[in-house]
UniProtKB/TrEMBL annotation:
This is P-loop containing nucleoside triphosphate hydrolase protein. HAMAP family: Mrp_NBP35. GO terms for biological process: iron-sulfur cluster assembly; mitochondrial respiratory chain complex I assembly. Coiled coil: none annotated. It comes from the Eukaryota. Belongs to the Mrp/NBP35 ATP-binding proteins family. GO terms for cellular component: mitochondrion. Keywords: ATP-binding, Iron, Iron-sulfur, Metal-binding, Nucleotide-binding. Residues 25-46 are annotated as: Disordered. GO terms for molecular function: 4 iron, 4 sulfur cluster binding; ATP binding; ATP-dependent FeS chaperone activity; metal ion binding. Gene3D superfamilies: P-loop containing nucleotide triphosphate hydrolases. The lineage of its organism: Eukaryota, Fungi, Dikarya, Basidiomycota, Agaricomycotina. It comes from Amanita muscaria (strain Koide BX008).
Length: 337
């Protein structure tokens, strides 16, 4: 699809937009004040907090398809089950969590959160995008902003055909122009979980340069090829001074539902553990391959939500226990002074 066509397909936003389109790829109304700028080479870094968000955690990996989005969503729900230790809130209050999908070219959050068929987000009076909420968790994704095909009334096959600068600007707008307050008078989020795209390109660099990120959770699978990309991802985050909170090994094993034997389908976890040790990084969880994880993800029901299931499936139990532990360590780390 030609670029101009994509750009002209955000009519609801473009009515008030008069800035250059590559400066405003989401076509948001112009706001007063200076937008944060991507630093020029060797220029000063201008990191800002995300408005109405206390802590930011990125879920990333140098490698595609290792389970970043699945883990980001379930980490968000596992965090949402933790109690807030804020003095200003009731001791029984849970953490307020949101999810931001920064995978501009391949957003998964609309599917994983059961928001594929939702209406497009609204703008607030000040021109910020209102997140969409399901299962009590607000989320924002490029997938909510893509135009729908008139035939299918779906945007799932709509590609984003943008060059680097457009992507940087779209990321910038998703970072700073989303209203996470949760409505009038809302108090914002305790923690925002960001689902990162694969690789070490524009998006993680833009995030690291513009935002104060409190930690990164790096996901890998046991294979050597994944571990090599993971090391590159870690090096990139270190370059932009994002602290690595820890590593998650996904699909570490498969527990046979019939005989309950554990099989290392993709090889033993030894190389992963050795990598974590040599980099002096925490292992937050080793999660099994569980068919139910994939099925409930496709249905938009994160496995962490199915906590009350009477399932005795060992894999799911191990998965939830791993995510719960990872969430507790992440929160302890990012919230410690
Ligand atoms: N532990 C698991 N058990 C079963 N299926 C899993 C597990 N982890 C991930 N999957 C499945 O693997 C597929 C890829 O997962 P996911 O989309 O989360 O990966 P990703 O790293 O975000 O991919 P991308 O790099 O394309 O963004 C999905 O179908 C997901 O349901
Ligand atoms: Mg993904």
């Amino acid at each position: 699809m030609p670029k101009a066509h994509i750009l002209n397909s955000f009519p609801r936003f473009f009515t008030t937009s008069c800035v250059l389109k590559h400066e405003n790829p989401l076509g948001l109304p112009r706001k007063s004040g200076t937008p944060p700028q991507i630093p020029r080479r060797a220029g000063p870094v201008q990191r800002r907090p995300i408005p109405n968000v206390k802590k930011v955690i990125a879920v990333a990996s140098g490698k595609g398809g290792v389970g970043k989005s699945t883990i980001a969503v379930n980490l968000a729900f596992a965090l949402g089950l933790l109690r807030s230790n804020s003095a200003s809130q009731s001791p029984t209050a849970r953490l307020r969590v949101g999810i931001l999908d920064l995978d501009i070219f391949g957003p998964s959050i609309p599917t994983l959160m059961g928001l594929r068929q939702s209406l497009e987000p609204e703008l607030t009076a000040s021109g910020a995008i209102r997140p969409l909420t399901n299962h009590g968790v607000p989320c924002m994704s490029m997938g909510f902003l893509l135009p729908r095909s008139p035939d299918s009334n779906s945007n799932e096959d709509t590609p984003v055909v943008w060059r680097g600068l457009m992507v940087q600007k779209a990321v910038q707008q998703l970072l700073f122009d989303v209203d996470w307050t949760g409505g009038a008078g809302g108090s914002g989020l305790d923690i925002l979980v960001i689902d990162m795209p694969p690789g070490t390109g524009d998006v993680p660099l833009t995030l690291g340069q513009l935002v104060q990120v409190d930690g990164a959770v790096i996901v890998s699978t046991p294979q050597d090829v994944a571990l090599s990309d993971v090391r590159k991802g870690i090096a990139m985050f270190k370059k932009v001074s994002v602290p690595i909170t820890g590593l998650v090994l996904n699909q570490s094993n498969f527990i046979c539902p019939t005989c309950a034997t554990s099989h290392s389908l993709f090889g033993p976890p030894d190389a992963f553990r050795a990598t974590a040790k040599s980099l002096e990084l925490n292992v937050l969880a080793e999660l099994p391959l569980v068919p139910g994880v994939s099925i409930s993800s496709d249905e938009g029901r994160p496995v962490m939500l199915c906590q009350q299931d009477s399932t005795t499936e060992k894999g799911k139990i191990q998965w939830r226990a791993g995510m719960t532990h990872a969430a507790q360590v992440v929160w302890d780390k990012v919230s410690s002074p």
